[in-house]
Design brief:
One of its GO terms (molecular function) is hydrolase activity. It comes from Streptomyces liliiviolaceus. Keywords: Hydrolase. The structure is a single chain. The protein has 232 residues and is of the alpha/beta class. It has one domain: 3-Layer(aba) Sandwich (Rossmann fold). 31% of the residues lie in helices and 19% in strands. It has 6 helices and 8 strands; from the N terminus they run ββαβαβαββαβααβ. An 8-stranded mixed β-sheet has the order 1-3-2-4-5-6-7-8, sandwiched between helices. α1 links the parallel β2 and β3. The longest helix is centred in the middle third of the chain and has 17 residues.
């Protein structure tokens, strides 16, 4: 794991800070998607990055902006590239620690970014992960997740090469997490159909991960206590 405060090997920053209040008590960090292999540099106008913008904007409405830093992981390359995105996420969390100290962090990731977020949940500051249409290949390893909250949201079908989300949820629970899965009926992997539902549920999940004791009863809290995916 990167040493807190240490720069990335390339000398670049892995964390793009979008909003930083004077008094920081928590952080919401987003991670966009990407292909399995692509060594080209990331550009802000690529579709996987653009797809996360409305989700991130709505999710920000679920946190107290006067005390919550909003950030985004800046990958060095577009693709997963045998775990490069995971490494970049851990560097971003290291930089965040240098900026804010040991504040709790919620990771909100899409596709490849969801996989990176789930891998990086091992970081001690991570309170939980909201994983949207996650790319989870077969036999994806599950990090030690004691005390974390994990919510996986996906569409009706999962590619045959991927782990079934509920299988991952059960492994996450065995690893100590509060975990659950939501199915967006009619929703595809690009989150375009029923986009408002994806965005609203993502925001609710972020809010409930950050404030687990607020007593709100919602599809998110139902998913955490269910033995099967909750269909919305």
């Amino acid at each position: 794991m990167p040493v807190p405060g240490q720069a990335m090997p390339s000398g670049d920053t892995a964390l793009w800070v979008r909003h930083s209040p004077e008094r920081i008590q928590a952080a919401l960090v987003t991670l966009h998607g990407g292909p399995a292999a692509d060594h080209h540099p990331v550009r802000p106008w690529q579709l996987s990055a653009l797809r996360m913008r409305p989700v991130a904007r709505i999710a920000a409405s679920a946190v107290p902006l006067e005390t919550t830093l909003l950030g985004q992981v800046r990958y060095r390359q577009r693709g997963w590239n045998e775990g490069a995105a995971e490494v970049d996420t851990l560097w971003a969390l290291s930089e965040l620690n240098r900026l804010t100290g040991d504040v709790p962090v919620v990771l909100l990731g899409y596709a490849m970014g969801a996989r990176a977020a789930l891998r990086a949940a091992v970081h001690p500051q991570v309170l939980g992960v909201v994983a949207l249409a996650p790319w989870l290949p077969k036999k994806e390893r599950v990090s030690p997740l004691s005390g974390r909250s994990i919510l996986i949201m996906h569409g009706d079908s999962v590619p045959p090469t991927d782990t079934e989300p509920m299988d991952y949820v059960q492994q996450a629970r065995a690893a100590g997490a509060r975990a659950g899965a939501l199915v967006v009926h009619g929703g595809g992997p690009r989150m375009l159909h029923r986009a408002g539902v994806w965005q609203d549920l993502a925001a609710r999940a972020v809010g409930q991960v950050l404030r687990p004791d607020n007593g709100e009863f919602s599809p998110v809290s139902q998913a955490w206590s269910s033995d099967r995916p909750l269909v919305i």
